[in-house]
């Protein structure tokens, strides 16, 4: 008998069985509420007997049966059992009309499980997940918390005016330049530094396009009125790191800048690029993913700013960057009074009404710049340009205290860096969906004119903080979810019931559909169903439906998924201690597999394989006294030599599994085999899942380039000479299409691959990563893995990866209201058609970015709607649909678009777009395109939204004032501008990683968080205020922490007090601090505790355990650290923030002239 057969028969998991009736879903995902055993969502689940919903066949139909089990084969030999052709098309081509099942996402169950694991160990997980998410008992009304008052819930959204201008900014005076101009004419709404003192209030009201200034509470920095920051960028000399810019401000600066002052200590010369940075003992690995040590400036035409070292200049065009960039300094305005006193970090932005803006200020003539006498050029003060820190702090103080209630259309949420609670009142939480703009141009022409990409960053299975409610699970019984007859959109708060409730009109396609008898309900006097608040799908933005068998592959409910652990046991893996480490860890980790609801044990079965040039399968059937190994040496046509006993229940086979894990390290202790295969390993896992007729995940622990003779064999084709050539793109492309085909087969089976790499040299991440990437899996890389320093990081990653919430065999479709449609997708998935995103696995950290384009006009009245539907199989084998809905405003005025943008999301999109672009275009082309697009975005604003002002002024939309600084970070990233120390594998790794990142991750990845630890208040839980990423902000008497989601650096200044060193490192002097520490020593004093708690907290916020690196000022490793001081010029040629801003200004002026 084969394993698979057993699998389906047993309903042990309480999962829906074929003939399921009125399936009551026990506790919905994840939470383990012992006390609340079966939550029945009575209110909305009752399946209505009798009613058969005409569910359109979904895209899943059973195409070929599962080729399942091959006949058991004999060990060592042979071959063939499953012809490759079987693989493949399990899923029928999606029928066009019938929307494929929306697929789902992941879930709750994961959360729970996660929390059960020793908390201490889970620190790397998302904090939220650490606490059990509890789903309110069924009886609980759906209006979580905030009793949605009917008012806010009405489907007719109230239009809300953008919230008032952000007050916070008011205080800032812009750095001198702009102020002047701004002040002058504008009836300024809230202007900061200028004229009218703080007139905040007016702004919001006035600007709201639609009038009701009702929604003021959320005003904050976003959405607000057009703020344009105006700043005159004079051309000035870019400050260099290390110098205090402020003091250098030269009031009168001339266009041609003076040559940049020699940067102190930053020059390339100081850091011989060659220092083996990549593997200093301290850093076992090469720099970290993503990071580059700066190298000689590469030729980057666009924004080079200071005179690069001669050597680097080859490709640059603009000569001395500075001067070139800024042409003659536009006459700028005389410094305004406020000019001298700039406040730290505040950019003088003035937010005021824009001329064209909705007529609110009809005659506002020159808002921004009073024509003043051209001021003498001045040096650009770094404190005068938009500060990310200031923006983040302002948003926190303005929006962090109140919950974000989603009942209003087109509301811009708080920034990802702000802690806030979300109350779902009809639109999906920003934790699930964030948009580049919450106000979409009504026409395609407007959209093209602005060049602002319209995109949504969707994280369907996002983990939520414990205070928020997980999506409710709605069970409509055998009839399944109610959907529009034409477009197949799922019932949602925006559907309009008509004819007394007998029919509903689709909010996406306008088609009218009969309400199924079992779903009928009367309407109240406002036209709303009287059960509105009792049904999540009518009142909430996010919820889940239990899927019927029609949504299942082969019309059969799925079996619970399986996890297969596949361990490389070649020489390097054994010698480094890795094999033993993995086996030891699995013994305990297997007790923490994801489980659903109140299930006592996980439904996931496990299997084990080890390999080098051949594969070893293990029979761990519970009835065996000892595990049995079966070797398959013919890897040319992989098959699984055993079916029964390969995938087992952990508890039933615990003794045998433990014995196996004890034996593996011993069995291979003396191996001399250095070669490995790779593709056959994936094929073996795939075949095993096929045989078991289930979806699942392969955890592959691999160490080297697979050069052994086998399918998918690779050669070392690394060639750094290709950098900056037209062939550079080949470094990011797989060297063979073999893996693409394999990935396709894996997706068809729901076989997700998570790959843990431990390379000591090039192993071609670009190729090995294809399957993990296309199956929705993850890649982790530990270069030069050393037990002592990397063990904790690897184990934390592994624990989190194994336990996290994950959905399988997922298909996601995004529907939109007429007028726009999803046209492009970015992320880790596979697409077999143009609309459905398929993922063999989708976990709570994976994000899909979707771009939209117009295909018709939109109307301001109806706005635009998005519905993301994810069909997936939960960790217990339950088929579900997770639905997220979001309503956006539409505008006819460009100013409305610019006022409702979100730069962090825009950067997420642009980075992914660029990172995909390097696969097909020269990197330089990609960088130039990014700069050009952003210049067009800002030029369009300047031309159409800002009031006329001097060309010498750079005026930035309030919501996009950080676009230049963040864009520069993307341009300087290792993928687009690598330093000499960045390896080809690092670049490929980062490229794939960023592609699945959410907005919070891209935000901190591109603009790291820098905290002065010595300023931390040891008596409070708060973090010290972050500072800008520039060397000139560092004091040699302090200790700082910098994190970017992958690494945490602790930088120690040379003059730090001896007592602080003693307290933090336990040594008596700076010289004794070891830079090879991978963790801070545990010392019993307030400072040590505080710092360690900060580190733990940060680790808990990220999806991966960050590598801790101690950097001593003036030490060799400091070069690596400086690479992350992204406002400074980088050694690899990246421009400083100031220089780049000047460059953007020049680009914008060219577009306007
Ligand atoms: Zn429809």
Poorly predicted residue ranges: 1-377
Query: What would you call the shape?
Result: globular
In whole angstroms, how far apart are the ends? 77 Å
User: What would you call the structural class?
Assistant: alpha/beta
Largest sheet: 7 strands, mixed
Number of helices: 31
Residues in helices, as a percent range: 10-25%
Strand content: 5-15%
What is the overall pLDDT average? 75
Strand runs, count: 30
Radius of gyration, in Å, reads 29 Å
Distinct bound molecules: zinc ion
Structure report:
The chain is α/β, with parallel strands linked by helices and 1153 residues long. It is 24% helix and 14% strand. It is built from 31 helices and 30 strands. Strands 6, 8, 12, 20, 22, 24 and 25 form a 7-stranded mixed beta sheet that branches. A 7-stranded mixed beta sheet has the order 16-15-14-13-17-18-19, sandwiched between helices. A hairpin with a 6-residue loop joins strand 10 (503-505) and strand 11 (512-514). Helix 23 crosses helix 26. The structure holds zinc ion.
């Amino acid at each position: 008998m084969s394993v698979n057969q057993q699998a389906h028969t047993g309903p042990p998991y309480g999962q829906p069985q074929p003939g399921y009736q009125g399936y009551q879903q026990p506790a919905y995902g994840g939470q383990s509420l012992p006390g609340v055993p079966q939550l029945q969502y009575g209110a909305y689940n009752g399946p209505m007997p009798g009613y058969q919903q005409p569910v359109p066949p979904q895209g899943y139909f059973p195409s070929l049966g599962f080729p399942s089990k091959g006949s058991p084969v004999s060990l060592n030999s042979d071959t063939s059992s499953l012809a490759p052709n079987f693989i493949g098309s399990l899923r029928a081509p999606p029928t066009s009309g019938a929307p494929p099942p929306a697929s789902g996402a992941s879930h709750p169950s994961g959360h729970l499980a996660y929390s059960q694991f020793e908390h201490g160990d889970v620190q790397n997980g998302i904090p939220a997940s650490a606490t059990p998410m509890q789903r309110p008992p069924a009886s609980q009304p759906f209006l979580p918390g905030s009793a949605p008052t009917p008012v806010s819930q009405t489907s007719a959204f109230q239009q809300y005016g953008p919230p008032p201008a952000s007050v916070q900014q008011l205080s800032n005076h812009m750095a001198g330049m702009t102020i002047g101009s701004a002040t002058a004419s504008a009836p300024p709404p809230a202007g900061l530094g200028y004229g009218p003192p703080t007139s905040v209030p007016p702004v919001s009201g006035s600007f709201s396009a639609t009038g009701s200034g009702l929604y003021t509470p959320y005003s904050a920095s976003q959405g607000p009125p057009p703020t344009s920051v105006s700043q005159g960028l004079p051309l000035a000399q870019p400050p260099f790191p290390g110098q205090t810019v402020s003091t250098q401000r030269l009031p009168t600066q001339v266009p041609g800048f003076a040559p940049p002052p020699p940067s102190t200590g930053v020059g390339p010369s100081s850091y011989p690029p060659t220092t083996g940075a990549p593997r200093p003992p301290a850093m076992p690995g090469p720099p970290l993913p993503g990071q580059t040590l700066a190298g000689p400036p590469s030729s980057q035409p666009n924004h080079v700013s200071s005179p690069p070292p001669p050597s680097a200049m080859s490709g640059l065009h603009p000569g001395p960057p500075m001067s070139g960039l800024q042409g003659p300094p536009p006459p700028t305005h005389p410094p305004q009074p406020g000019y001298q006193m700039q406040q730290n970090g505040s950019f003088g932005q003035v937010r005021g009404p824009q001329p064209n803006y909705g007529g609110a200020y009809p005659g506002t003539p020159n808002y921004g710049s009073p024509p003043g006498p051209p001021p003498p050029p001045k040096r650009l003060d770094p404190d005068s340009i938009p500060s990310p820190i200031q923006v983040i702090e302002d948003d926190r103080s303005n929006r962090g205290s109140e919950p974000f209630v989603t009942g209003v259309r087109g509301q811009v949420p708080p920034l990802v860096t702000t802690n806030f609670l979300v109350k779902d009142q009809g639109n999906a939480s920003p934790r699930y969906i964030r948009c580049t703009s919450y106000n979409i141009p009504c026409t395609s022409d407007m959209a093209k004119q602005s060049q602002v990409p319209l995109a949504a960053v969707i994280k369907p299975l996002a983990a939520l903080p414990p205070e928020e409610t997980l999506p409710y699970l709605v069970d409509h019984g055998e009839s399944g979810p109610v959907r529009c007859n034409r477009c197949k959109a799922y019932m949602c708060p925006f559907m309009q019931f008509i004819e007394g409730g007998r029919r509903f009109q689709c909010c996406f396609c306008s088609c009218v559909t009969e309400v199924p008898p079992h779903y009928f309900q009367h309407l109240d006097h406002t036209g709303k169903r009287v059960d509105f608040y009792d049904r999540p799908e009518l009142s909430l933005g996010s919820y889940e439906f239990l899927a019927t068998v029609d949504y299942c592959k082969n019309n059969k409910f799925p079996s619970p998924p399986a996890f297969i652990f596949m361990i490389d046991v070649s020489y390097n893996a054994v010698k480094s201690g890795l094999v033993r480490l993995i086996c030891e860890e699995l013994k305990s980790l297997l007790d923490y597999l994801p489980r659903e609801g109140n299930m006592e044990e996980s439904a996931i079965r496990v299997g084990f394989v080890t390999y080098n040039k051949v594969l070893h399968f293990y029979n761990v059937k519970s009835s065996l006294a000892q595990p049995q190994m079966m070797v398959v040496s013919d890897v040319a046509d992989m098959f699984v030599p055993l079916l029964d006993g390969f995938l087992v229940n952990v508890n039933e086979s615990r003794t045998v599994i433990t014995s196996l894990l004890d034996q593996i390290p011993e069995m291979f202790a003396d191996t001399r085999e250095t070669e490995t295969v790779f593709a056959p390993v994936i094929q073996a896992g795939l075949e095993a899942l096929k045989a078991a007729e289930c979806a699942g995940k392969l955890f592959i622990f691999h160490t080297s380039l697979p050069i052994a003779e086998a399918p998918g064999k690779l050669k070392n084709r690394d060639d750094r000479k290709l950098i900056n050539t037209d062939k550079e793109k080949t470094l990011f492309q797989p060297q063979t299409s073999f893996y693409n085909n394999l990935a396709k087969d894996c997706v068809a089976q729901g076989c997700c691959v998570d790959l843990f790499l431990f390379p000591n040299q090039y192993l071609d991440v670009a190729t090995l990563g294809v399957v993990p990437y296309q199956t929705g899996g993850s890649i982790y890389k530990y270069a030069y893995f050393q037990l002592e320093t990397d063990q904790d990081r690897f184990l934390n990653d592994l624990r989190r990866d194994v336990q996290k919430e994950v959905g399988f065999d997922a298909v996601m479709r995004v529907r939109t209201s007429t007028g726009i449609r999803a046209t492009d997708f970015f992320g880790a998935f596979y697409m077999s058609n143009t609309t459905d995103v398929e993922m063999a696995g989708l976990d709570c950290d994976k994000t899909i970015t979707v771009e939209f384009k117009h295909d018709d006009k939109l109307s301001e009245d109806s706005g635009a709607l998005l519905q993301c539907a994810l069909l997936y199989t939960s960790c217990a084998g339950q088929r579900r649909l997770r639905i997220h809905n979001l309503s956006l405003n539409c505008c006819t005025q460009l100013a409305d678009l610019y006022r409702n943008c979100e730069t962090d999301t825009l950067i997420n999109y642009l980075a992914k777009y660029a990172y995909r672009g390097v696969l097909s275009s020269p990197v330089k082309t990609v960088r130039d395109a990014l700069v050009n697009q952003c210049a067009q975005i800002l030029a369009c604003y300047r031309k159409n939204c800002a009031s006329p002002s001097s060309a010498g002024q750079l005026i930035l939309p309030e919501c996009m004032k950080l676009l230049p600084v963040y864009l520069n970070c993307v341009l300087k990233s290792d993928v687009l501008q690598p330093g000499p120390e960045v390896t080809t594998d690092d670049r490929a790794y980062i490229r794939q990683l960023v592609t699945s990142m959410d907005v919070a991750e891209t935000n901190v990845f591109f603009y790291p968080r820098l905290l002065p630890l010595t300023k931390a208040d040891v008596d409070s839980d708060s973090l010290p205020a972050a500072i800008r990423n520039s060397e000139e902000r560092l004091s040699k008497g302090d200790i700082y922490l910098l994190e970017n989601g992958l690494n945490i650096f602790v930088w120690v200044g040379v003059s730090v007090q001896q007592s602080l060193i003693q307290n933090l490192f336990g040594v008596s002097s700076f010289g004794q601090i070891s830079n090879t520490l991978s963790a801070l020593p545990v010392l019993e004093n307030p400072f040590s505790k505080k710092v360690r708690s900060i580190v733990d907290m940060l680790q808990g916020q990220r999806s991966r355990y960050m590598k801790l690196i101690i950097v001593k000022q003036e030490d060799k490793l400091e070069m690596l650290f400086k690479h992350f001081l992204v406002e400074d010029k980088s050694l690899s040629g990246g421009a400083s923030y100031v220089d780049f801003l000047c460059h953007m200004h020049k680009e914008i002026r060219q577009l306007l002239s």
